[in-house]
Amino acid sequence: MSTKSTATVNEENKPSRRKFFIGAGATVGAVAIASQTPIGKAVIQEIGSTVQGKDDGYQLTAHIRKYYETTML
Asked: How is the chain split among helix, strand and coil, in percent rounded to 5?
């Protein structure tokens, strides 16, 4: 049996901010490296073309233009 007490073992397994940020940093680094591979670049290009193809964003229409004209001082 180990000489460590149960409280000491629980403290070692407890999640901490330091471990979280180390893991997050490693993940971001891995994603950055993967995005520079040929497969990663193809995936980014595919996602970009999908996002650019949508016209769901802001569009200046007649009623919006009229609203802007009424708000001018």
From this structure: 70, 0, 30
- Structure tokens that stand for 24 in this block: 């997050």
Determine the average pLDDT of the residues in 21-30. Answer: 90
- Nearest CA-CA partner of 44 in 28, 26, 56, 31: 31
Q: How far is CA 60 from CA 1, 5, 39, 63, 72, in A?
A: 73, 68, 37, 8, 16
For residue 51, what are its two tokens?
Answer: 């996002």
Cα–chain-centroid distance for residue 40? 16
Q: What is the value of pTM for the model shown?
A: 0.42
